[in-house]
Amino acid sequence: MKFGHRGANHPVKDLRTGRVYITSQNHGYAVDESSIPEDTAVPAFRNLNDGTNEGFLYKDRNILTVQFHPEASPGPCDSGFLFDEFAEMMRRRQRGSEHGAQAD
Amino acid sequence: MKDTSIKKVLVIGSGPIVIGQAAEFDYAGTQACRALREEGVETVLLNSNPATIMTDKDIADHVYIEPLTVPVLKALIEREKPDSILPTMGGQAGLNLAMALADEGFLEKKGVRLIGASAETIRRAEDRLLFKETMQKISEPVADSEIVHDLEAGLAAAERIGYPVVLRPAYTLGGSGGGIAENEYACRNLLESGLRLSRVHEVLVERSIAGWKEIEYEVMRDISGNVITICNMENMDPVGIHTGDSIVVAPSQTLSDREYQMLRSAALNIISELEIVGGCNVQFALDPKSFEYIVIEVNPRVSRSSALASKATGYPIARVAAKAALGYRLDEIKNAVTGKTTACFEPALDYCVVKMPRLPFDKFRTADHLLGTQMKATGEVMAISGSFEAGLMKAIRSLEQHTVSLMSYDYSDLDNYDLREHLKLPDDRRIWLIAEAFRRGMSMSEICALTGIDAWFLDKVLLLVEMERRLSDEHLSTDLLRAAKMLEFPDSVISHLSGVKEAEVRRLRTEAGILPAFKMVDTCAAEFEAETPYFYSVYGGVDEAAEFLEKRRNAVTCAEAEISVMKGQTAEEREDFAGSESANFSEKTAQEAADHCSEKKKKILILGSGPIRIGQGIEFDFCSVHAAWAFQKEGYETIIINNNPETVSTDFDIADRLYFEPLTAENVRNVVLLEKPDGAVVQFGGQTAIGLSQALMEMGVPILGTAAEWVDAAEDRERFDEILEKEHIRRPAGDTVYTAAEAKKAAKRLGYPVLVRPSYVLGGQGMRIAVSDTDIEEYIDAINVIRQEHPILVDKYIRGKELEVDAICDGEDILIPGIMEHIERTGIHSGDSISVYPAKSVSAGVKETIARYTEKLARALHVSGMINIQFIADGEDVYIIEVNPRSSRTVPYISKVTGIPMIALAVHVICGGKIKDTGFVPGLQEERPLYAVKMPVFSFEKIKGADISLGPEMKSTGECLGVSEDFEEALGKAFRGAGINLPHYRNMIMTVRDEDKEEMIPVAKRFEKMGFRIYATRGTSQSLMSAGIRCFQIRKAEQESPNIMDLILGHALDLIIDIPGNGIKGAKDGFSIRRSAVETGVHVITAVDTARALAEALENAGRGESLTDLAKLNQSLMSCEELQSEEIQMELHNCLGSAKQSR
Fold first, then answer.
1. Is the dihedral of CA B293, B294, B300, B306 positive or negative?
2. What is the ipTM of this complex?
3. According to CATH, what is the number of the domain B144-208?
């Protein structure tokens, strides 16, 4: 990226819901979306200013990636829900492995 | 996505300018209307304020300048049938009005919805109990409080919560009637007035959190639930002083990230819970010692703070809020400043913004200067700089109150004990007092403890005080000079402190290269390139404005090159082009680009009018903005300098370039050096701009329009008298004096009463009617306090009819749109008089004389552009009172009711055009078939201790208009628009000075006939009774109870007609009666003529509401002139007539 994303005011769109969140960012490289095969992961977040990728959701795996800082220190806590989502994903996985065989 | 079912939207304005509700709503409403029109939505505008830009026919499709009352709004909805109302642009007034209709179920019945904020949202934000419940639901803390509807419950609540308590009446603007009560006695007083002023007789008694930090967040939400913060702001003063009266800084300066994010999240939670679609303002109190905070208030609408936030960040809040209300998501709305990014982002500030209030104590010298929860400021200024301390220095000199630094007030008579006591009490001069305390060596911790202000801010004041000391003690080295300029010390102050001449200071720093750089306000801290930026100056740093201009110059060169290439092509070559159309098109675009940015295009500098203050209101912003538009039409590139964040003129897309700077010679010079304008106009920016004429000429900038020497001629007594004599025009006899002794001599020769006034002022500041030598002594003292460099004028006072014209002169021809007549006779400032267009009670002969005099004077004064003249008619005799070769406060209203675009014509003339080539016929224009009554509106209840009796010094803060074919109805509308909606109790008090008793009798008879019960003091009651009028004698205030005071405090009065005598004694008599009346919400009239007009209006009340669409009316009037077609005449008649449906 030319200058990179720096600061605590970057709008990121959650492609799953269409909602936009303000995030804390500090990065100079972005992932080229076309470099990730569609059956591996789908883009989950995009920067509203320049359209660069800000995160992927992996298929068949419990992986959610973001390039911004939901932990927000410093910065806005808008995307704090991602931790809940991640924790929930882990719990689901745990439940899944307990009763695994029947479910899948 | 846009909600396509919204096709016709009614936008409600905020009505007359009063303290707490000023120009910011014109700015918001104008921006909103333009955004709606951009989307193809038909707009209907309702506002009673004729001085606003939003009521222009170019801004909305249908314009109604009518009183903001429930019956009017209902009639308007019946007539225009809008599908939606946008209630969030008109401040508290607009919101309350929309809610009144929603509560009645009227909107539902008519199928009209509220967009931006639903009725439910508004209730949950505004109703104290619902608000508390809402906040509790989302776990946002609010102060312990109780809602009360009567005195006893209020006192009990205060007892339970514990003193001190804050009292907040519900549904009032600017916190009217609110305050902090330290004890039961104070609580009782505040409760009484608060209950009365509240629309629903409701007061909130609340735990006092005085001493906490006051922080505001401007947040925005769209229909899909996306939420963002535009800006946060911190009040320098702790909680307890209304944010409108506090020095405010953006962004916050003393918060940690944790505190900032905690409050930001809270603000976003609140707007989400309230489901506001658009902008919202949340005020917090934050305990500096812990992370505890409480939510003070939520405004589910645009506000004064959002206007400030818009200007501070460049983010057009009202525009985005209007689009969001139409259903757009924030990420679908373009950021109009960058043109590339979306509106869904949070602006970044790489500078510091300081707002200072403009308080009206220069006008109300007797008033209580203490600041509290009741807002008192009439306006504000904003300064942008690299640091708080530099911003503060810029803001101080923007105030237009003779302050250039922190040394502007003399405290030598204040000993250290008094100084300490004084520091505890916040008033309008607190920042100056803090500087004085530092000068005397008081410690930081002590000042901190006394004022409750965060040490961070105090430290900045200390920095400024230390610089003062260095400048006076040290040799003025280049380094010191640079350091002083970094702190924004003006050259004049550096000169004063260092003893080096001002010109020398300027030479020194120019040689050392200590020059300001202009930085851009681009919403994004230079992350993206901005297309329509505005600038501020700062010492040190790269000049972004110069870069910007350079880039445009290059663009022009490219465009020109392209054109010449195209022009060089032969026709055949062009045929070879893919399509000739596209070739033409690209040539056209290149030409446009060149035209648009051409450096060859002449540049015009337009000086704004600074902060809104009594005497120089929103009217001058109307004039500045229209001047900018007109110059653009004439092919000029426009540059505006102004410092008022509330106005339309400081919006990012009005002028080609905006410089947010103090209006001082030094700051204007910096802009001139950069821009090198071809000319400047000063006649549209009121006295502020006129005052800079001399400085502009010294910089070598030609003043377009009337030359400065002729402006002087109109003010210079001797020169003006010569002109009058030559033209055989009379004026009241008078003299020019410098001292009290000379003034007394002059008065003796002329005979009392005389009019005493300083020259070169606006709004009649310092003007008084003197009836004795003692009066003269006192007045001249008062005048000299406000540093008078110009002579004082003493005139014979003639009591006659006052008339006024605004005209446009091109050097040969004069166009007079109309003659206005004042209801009040001479002696009351024209801005405080009820003004009627067209003049209705003077003879055709007088009108003819006025037109002739106007033509003569405009020619004699070599006027090019606007001129305003005030006359006295005593029978058939016409005298001149004053001539102002500039735009005046009546221009907006006359432009609107006559349909004559006065500013555009004046600009055309200034650019060298002639009136004749505009299609208008010179001379006095034919009268329109309507009456327009302009009514002054006052904010007396907000300024404790201000004398409300009217005189030659202006006191009104705003105005409203009543328009109708029928005079009485227009008058009635004007009174109702000003909030005088009578009667409720049919009780009134009369106390009239001796010389007016006879005239008062017929007026009293009329009130009696309308069923009013008249109470009168002894003298008045005797003369009324001897004329056969039934009245009740009451004792004076100083006599034993029950007396007049008991009657006033009994809360069952409609009206007091109290006509005090002239002079100082007159002003003192009845002062406390008038004050108590105003503070308890009783209307007070202080002139016989006003009383007569009110009687006339009331007698004719209750005939229903007619409505006039001024946008339509003016269209038909214009076509009438052009075509003289009978058909259109009929249409016009119908346009006026159809309105009378409800009669």
1. negative
2. 0.91
3. 3.30.1490.20
